[in-house]
Amino acid sequence: MTPVTTTPGFVRYRPDLEQPFPDEQELVRQIVGAMERANRQVAAKHRHGLRDAHAKSHGVLAGELRIEPDLPAHLAQGLFAGPRSYPVIVRFSTSPGDLRSDRVPAPRGMAIKVIGVDGPRALDDGATTQDFLLVNHPTLPFGTVGEYAELQELLERQPRESDLWQQSTRLGARIAVRVSARLGLRPPRALEALAAPNHHILGETFHSMAALRYGDHVAKISAAPRSEDVRALTGRPVGRRAGDSALRDLVAGFFAHHSAEYDLRAQLCVDVGRMPIEDASKRWPEELSPHQRVAVLHLPAQDPYSDARRRYADDVLSFSPWHALEAHRPLGSIMRIRREAYARSSDFRHTVNGVREREPSSIDELPA
Ligand code: HEM
Fold first, then answer.
1. CB distance 140 to ligand 1 below 6 Å
2. CB distance 225 to 110 below 8 Å
3. CDD domains per the record (predicted)?
4. 133 lines ligand 1 (CB under 6 A)
5. Atom 11 of ligand 1: nearest residue by CA position
6. From the CB of 144, is ligand 1 less than 6 Å away?
7. Closest CA to 281 of 77, 78, 137
8. Residue 9 included in any domain
9. How many domains does the chain have?
10. Nearest CA to ligand 1 atom 26
11. CATH number where 313 lies
12. Is 116 within the bounds of a domain?
């Protein structure tokens, strides 16, 4: 096998970095089928088609992605090749495929759609968008398609569980994680995910969790609070007396008077052994390769949750890691399964709601 690194040590992208599982297609079929069954139940409950994951939005923003000037050659790749600015739409969400109370802690999502991007596409979709889908945790507890299939039964039960049941499970998980820490034990990964605290969504750091092509190289992407006003929100608990829509209220309250900036960062792969591409549950060590700023995401003060915006972002738009330039092709088994999962979820809700899916070609398509 030819070496996969180039000087000064960044792994060079090539297609055979991906190693599909022998029975991957069958696992994908099972997982996507189970997700579709859950999605049908939720649509029947609400008489409206929702996303199969990250159904609840908390803010939909217009902004700008400013690529850093003078990036070194290994970072000046793909979308980040030159110092220009792109319009973006950002949708903040929480992970369940149902409309849960914001009193129940849940992983937070930040989906960024960059508009007006030219270049060869990862899929032949005729679009000019580049999406980055990020969650506020660096790794996925179930990082391969095989492990994900095992999780599926648990996920299938989710829509039927009450908010109260979910709140108690998470409280139990937090206690178990604390007890494990006192005993010097490492808690199971699934328990850690359930035990996540209920913090202000805007102060979080968001991660792609899985790898993607980064032009000549391979990277994970993250977005971290940059401006003082959002950094001040990191770790701030959502109040105990908060209502069911606490996160939307916090986001709307913040952007009524403040702008926000996040650093968009790339962590380049320098060692495919210690920074695996096929297993998204493995954290890439920052001592081997730090997250480096490649752009600044600027979100000005605005009304982030008008009815027209919510309808547009929730019902018309779709975000997917496969809305991508070939230079940012999603990589690894979790990314491959997402190709099928996102298309099916999006088709389902657009069909049920009688809404045509449309990739924006201009920021003017986002209603005020
Ligand atoms: C690397 C790990 C992952 C990350 C960072 C991630 C992140 C996200 C985010 C941020 C959204 C919301 C997008 C929006 O605002 O519209 C989303 C939606 C979604 N995710 Fe994931 N996700 C991951 C893994 C998965 C996996 C493994 C599956 C399924 C097997 C999946 C299925 C979905 C589906 C079906 C949607 C809704 C698609 C739609 O109807 O438009 N995700 N994800």
1. yes
2. no
3. y4iL_like
4. yes
5. 54
6. no
7. 137
8. no
9. 1
10. 338
11. 2.40.180.10
12. yes
Q: Whose CA is nearest to atom 21 of ligand 1?
A: 53
192 touches 180 (CB < 8 A): no
Q: Which residues contact 313 (CB under 8 A, 6 or more apart)?
A: 57, 60, 89, 91, 366
* Residues β-bridged to residue 299: 260
Domain range holding 240?
15-22+55-145+198-335
Q: Which two tokens stand for residue 274?
A: 């210690």
* 103 in contact with ligand 1, CB cutoff 6 A: no
pLDDT of residue 8: 61
- Give 364's DSSP letter: G
Mean residue pLDDT across the chain: 90
Ligand 1 near 170 CB (within 6 A): no
Q: Which two tokens stand for residue 251?
A: 């986001």
Q: Is the CB of 27 under 6 A from ligand 1?
A: no
109 Cβ below 6 A of ligand 1: yes
Answer whether residue 207 is part of any domain. yes
Tell which atom from ligand 1 comes closest to the C-alpha of 348: 40
CA 213 to chain centre: 16
Q: Would 108 be classed as within a structural domain?
A: yes
Q: What is the pLDDT along the chain (368 residues), one digit of tens a residue?
A: 444 444 469 999 999 999 998 889 999 999 999 999 999 999 999 999 999 999 999 999 999 999 999 999 999 999 999 999 999 999 999 999 999 999 999 999 999 999 999 999 999 999 999 999 999 999 998 899 988 888 776 666 555 555 665 665 555 555 555 555 555 555 555 555 556 789 999 999 999 999 999 999 999 999 999 999 999 999 999 988 889 999 999 999 999 999 999 999 999 999 999 999 999 999 999 999 999 999 999 999 999 999 999 999 999 999 999 999 999 999 999 999 999 999 999 999 999 999 999 999 999 999 99
